[in-house]
Every structure is written in structure tokens, then in C-alpha cells.
Design a protein that fits this description.
Elements (H helix, E strand, L loop, with lengths): L1 H33 L1 E7 L7 H8 L2 H4 L2 E7 L3 H9 L5 E4 L2 H8 L6 E8 L4 E5 L15 E3 L6 H12 L9 E3 L7 H6 L5 E5 L2 H8 L3 E5 H5 L5 E6 H6 L1 H20 L2 H8 L8 H13 L11 H13 L9 H4 L3 H8 L1
Length: about 350
């Protein structure tokens, strides 16, 4: 009797284990099946895009069933080329690029669907330390600006004009240096002033290579500086994917809004292995304090019009485009409601 009971118990135990293993295996397979691959091409790697890295680090994309592949494609032109050629599903780049593509008569326009940053992210860096900076100090100096036609350069010119400086007459403007080489060019001795993103600007300051004297973001006001966009065809064919993606970004934006600069810096640290944590905290705090991180993914009409005004002022607006033509706010608004 005891032998029979032992045998029965052993068989029962084996059955339970087999069922548990099968269940775990099925759960794992189901989980893997749910993960959908989405390729992002980002215009640069910058703490300016902290909410994106938070979404990755905190697993917000995975929670939505998305497996993200992130590739850095330096420069708006390269990022847009990658998107249009099918090398990426979604691009994180300046909204002006979608206008350029539309103006060329594209049959498959690029649609902005989730805003990530809402101010310019660059800073004016001087070669020498200036205790009492004023913009007129740039007159007659050499200014190493950003690529012609890109948002950083257009905002730069917009701000200079705002302060009574003609960028093409009152200073020596250099804007033919490739985006990836601008910082190195300044470090090598080119220019009295340079327009830089973070964390490069703060790193230069720490190393004594330059000194931050002004913020272009504070000067230019709200603008859809960097947004997630995709081809219209992709958005139509992958509505659920776009919604999941936007929901993950919104979660990250809310997380960034409610956490300290130190917590944010620690969260995104894996994406900046060569950057000192203290520098990262300084950068995050600087961007948060000037309201650079969008708190939700909606790109509104006022921001869109401000973007086109800046482009027009720089002589780079090929044609005016209605907000509804290249911006989809429905997905972002639905995500926020739910």
C-alpha cells in the first residue's frame, strides 16, 4: 500500500512539474511572439532625448510588446534618408525635415506623431570665460554654427536676429562643418563661439575648452524641435504599433517629469558610458529647468507655426504646410486619455 502511495505521489509530482514546465514554456513563447521589432533612427545621441532612453531603460517599450533597435544616424539629412529608404521604421529628428520631404513632392509623406522635445537643445559656448555676457559681443567674431537648413542653425540665426545681429553680415559665420565634427573643430581652434548640444557643452566647460554663456532654448520659445515620425504608409499599416510606441513615450515623459535629475541621469547612464554621472545630472537639470523635455507627445498647432516662422526667418521654408497635413495628434491624444 505504501509503495503504491509513493508511486502515485511520484507520478502526481512528475505530472505537476511537466504541466508547470509546459505552462512556463508556453508563456515564454507567447511573450516572445508579442514582441514586435521596431527600428528607430535617432539624429544624435544626446541627453536632450532623455525620455527616449528612460522608455528603453525602464522597459516601457517592452511592456507594450515592442522590441526596439536604436541606431544613431548623425545629422537630419542622414536620419531622413535612413527612414525614407526603409532602413528604419521610426525616426527621431527635427520636424523641419518632414517639411523638406513634403515640399519635394513625396508620394509617401513623413508624419510627425509624437513630440519629444519642445525647445532648442543647443547652447552658446565661448572660447573664453565671460562674466557679463551680452549678445552684441558676437559682432565681428567667428561663430561656428550648425548645418545650414537644420533646426539648430535656423534657431541660432533666429536668436541672433532677435538680438539685432545679422548672422551673415555682423559676424563670420561658419556653417559648412559636418555635424559630427563641429565640436572637434572648435576644440582644435576654429571659432570664437560655437553652438553645441549637451553633454558636449558641459564636458567642454569642465575641461576648460569652452564656457556656456547662453541658451538658445530659452531664447527661442516652444518649438517642435525633435519628434518621432514615420512614413504615412507605415502609420496606416501599423496603427497598433504606433499607438503602443506613443504610449511608452508618454509613460517615459511622465516619469521624467516626476523624478529628479539624479534619478533620470542614473536611469539613462547605460546609454552614455563615457559621460561622467555628475555631468549628466547637470545636463538633465539644465534641460528640465528650461522646459526642454515635452511633458506629453502632442505637437500642437502653435508650436508648428512657430517652427515655420523660424524657418521662414532663416530663408529655409520651401512652402507653408498646414499643421494637419504633416502632424497626427490623434494617437497622442488617445494615449493620454487612456
Amino acid at each position: 500500500m505504501k509503495r503504491w502511495m509513493k508511486l502515485s505521489f511520484s507520478l502526481l509530482l512528475i505530472s505537476v512539474l511537466m504541466i508547470s514546465l509546459a505552462a512556463c514554456n508556453n508563456h515564454s513563447q507567447t511573450k516572445n511572439k508579442k514582441l514586435e521589432k521596431v527600428r528607430i533612427a535617432e539624429v544624435t545621441r544626446s541627453i536632450f532625448y532623455a525620455p527616449q532612453y528612460v522608455a528603453l531603460a525602464k522597459g516601457f517599450f517592452k511592456d507594450e510588446g515592442l522590441d526596439i533597435t536604436l541606431t544613431t544616424t548623425p545629422g537630419g539629412d542622414k536620419t531622413m534618408t535612413t527612414l525614407l529608404s526603409g532602413g528604419a521604421d521610426i525616426a527621431l529628428v527635427g520636424s523641419e525635415t518632414s517639411i523638406y520631404v513634403y515640399a519635394q513632392g513625396s508620394n509617401d509623406p513623413v508624419i510627425n506623431f509624437a513630440q519629444l522635445t519642445q525647445t532648442d537643445g543647443t547652447f552658446l559656448v565661448a572660447r573664453e570665460k565671460i562674466d557679463n555676457f551680452s549678445w552684441d559681443l558676437l559682432k565681428g567674431k567667428t561663430f561656428l554654427g550648425q548645418r545650414k537648413g537644420g533646426m539648430p542653425q535656423m534657431v541660432g540665426e533666429f536668436v541672433l536676429k532677435k538680438h539685432g545681429i545679422d548672422p551673415h553680415k555682423d559676424l563670420n559665420l561658419i556653417q559648412n562643418v559636418d555635424y559630427a565634427n563641429i565640436a572637434n573643430a572648435f576644440a582644435s581652434g576654429t571659432g570664437d563661439y560655437v553652438q553645441l548640444f549637451e553633454p558636449t557643452a558641459s564636458i567642454f566647460e569642465k575641461e576648460g575648452k569652452g564656457y556656456i554663456v547662453a541658451s538658445f532654448g530659452k531664447e527661442s520659445g516652444h518649438v517642435p524641435y525633435t519628434t518621432f515620425m514615420a512614413k504615412e504608409s507605415y502609420m496606416k499599416e501599423n496603427k497598433a504599433t504606433i499607438e503602443k510606441f506613443t504610449r511608452a513615450i508618454y509613460k517615459a515623459q511622465q516619469w521624467v517629469q516626476t523624478h529628479s535629475a539624479e534619478e533620470i541621469a542614473k536611469a539613462v547612464e547605460p546609454y552614455f558610458p563615457d559621460t561622467d554621472l555628475e555631468i549628466m545630472k547637470t545636463v538633465v537639470d539644465r534641460y528640465k529647468s528650461q522646459g526642454s523635455y515635452a511633458t506629453n507627445p502632442v505637437l500642437d498647432e502653435e508650436e508648428w507655426n512657430n517652427l515655420q516662422n523660424i524657418m521662414k526667418e532663416a530663408g529655409e521654408l520651401p512652402k507653408e504646410v498646414n499643421h494637419k497635413t504633416l502632424v497626427n495628434t490623434e494617437v497622442a491624444k488617445d494615449v493620454m486619455k487612456n
